[in-house]
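FORM 7B: Structural annotation worksheet

SECTION A. Query
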Amino acid sequence: MNDQRNGDIVMLKLNPMKDLYESPLAPMALADYEAFSKFLNQALHRCHQTERDFNVFLDWAIRALSASLAADSGSRIFLPKTRTAPFALDDLIPLSGIPARGRRTVDLEKSYVVAPIWNNADLMEATEAFSDSGFENVKIEQIFSGAYIEELKLAIIDTPSDVAVPYILSLWDRGSIQMEAYSLKDLAEVLYTDGSKWYLQGEDGDTELPVLEPRMAILYNCGTRRFCGD
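SECTION B. Predicted structure
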């Protein structure tokens, strides 16, 4: 229910939020690593029985999880600013200490863009500028902070960059940006996860970091299995 006063929409709180698991569309952040692993194991068993290609299920999982992460990153604008932690690349997947392959042009039309939209004014200004440009298919030479994982076509843009611009462009299937790129083949040599922790291999042994987003752990393991072999 809403009320309008002086042209502004005012939402009236009638009931507290239902338990998250019982809501009509439970937030995908509740995704469970073990539950998804069970599904993939069942799919693998079916493929053994029917002689089908298991890669079809991995491709589905990669697309579904990437699309979900991209959508949720944009919906951060709707969350209370005082109750949500800032977004950082390493909280999603710890890549900052791993050398990238180099700079790549990222086609936003063909990529899943994880851009943690947060600032109301920035988002409005980016939307207005894009509209005023006639929805221009702009190719931006600026290097955006974050990581582009080549095999997944996943662009993760963290907050030091102006995330609103590439986010808006990607929604309208426009434009390109420059990012540092990583390959799963390189990452698999030094980074792995069991769904609970990330393990980053170094000269002094493994560094253990908590998995804060189970979808990213699932996506990473699906990707390495799909593109790097068993």
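SECTION C. Observations
The CA atoms of residues 184 and 224 lie 6 Å apart. The chain has seven helices and eleven strands.

SECTION D. Sign-off
Analyst initials: ____
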